[in-house]
């Protein structure tokens, strides 16, 4: 009887400790508000936000901090998470497996071709990634988006459009922190999967620094939203990386190029690239 009572008391203590630990708030990242850099957006006549995250210091540098925490449809920046999920679930064998685009006319001629994700990622081939989405399915997306902590985790009932028209949404801050985990191999995925996606996200190198990223452009809301997310890896001393996420309002087609232009300006002003 005494043994049962002791076991019960121990179990009760464990449950109580678990609840208490869950109630302890996690430490929020340190935030540096660079409201002065809003002039970069004003110079280009667009509204937007920029988030820079230093995972080593757990420090966020925000330009237009209010907007940085507003969740928005990720559009083609979701190709990063989509590639990770497709590889980890063995929907595709690797980055070289050819994926069919479906044979239908596309708004961009470069999309009218069967291709592997290492090429589809670069040209942002929507139909190829929609084919991957059909193979993955809503049930697995619901599981993996929660595992990855990606935005609001919401898939809805249209497996080929949820990242293009919603309901999936993510903030600039969440994008930057998610990207930092990928860059540092800290996602709950195999090292192989993360390395493949890092490789296909590479844009260029300059000296000791390598620039990785992915753009996105959603035409669902009014105004349209343009994204650029990625990271800078510095292999000099000290070895360090920072991740970033930008989103802007796209009021006309000429604003599309501003995603990369403004991102590079922000990184330069912050001394990161």
Describe the fold and architecture:
- The protein is α+β, with helices and mostly antiparallel strands and 273 residues long.
- It contains ten helices and seven strands.
- Strand 6 (224-234) and strand 7 (240-250) form a beta hairpin.
- Helix 4 crosses helix 6 and helix 4 runs antiparallel to helix 9 (191-200).
- The chain is globular and about 50 Å long.
Gist?
The protein is of the alpha+beta class.
Task: Note the topology.
Layout: H1 2-23, E1 30-33, H2 38-43, E2 48-54, E3 59-63, H3 65-68, H4 79-88, H5 117-123, H6 126-136, H7 138-148, H8 172-183, H9 191-200, E4 202-206, E5 209-218, E6 224-234, E7 240-250, H10 258-269
Parallel strand pairs: 1-3
Antiparallel strand pairs: 2-3, 2-7, 4-5, 5-6, 6-7
Helix pairs in contact: 4-6, 4-9
Query: What percent of residues are in strands?
Result: 15-25%
**How would you write the strand order of the largest sheet?**
1-3-2-7-6-5-4
Average pLDDT taken over every residue: 91
Distance between the termini: 68 Å
- Structural class assignment: alpha+beta
Major β-sheet annotation: 7 strands, mixed
Shape: globular
Outline the low-pLDDT stretches.
2-26
Instruction: Work out the helicity level.
Output: 25-40%
Order of helices and strands: HEHEEHHHHHHHEEEEH
Radius of gyration, whole Å: 21 Å
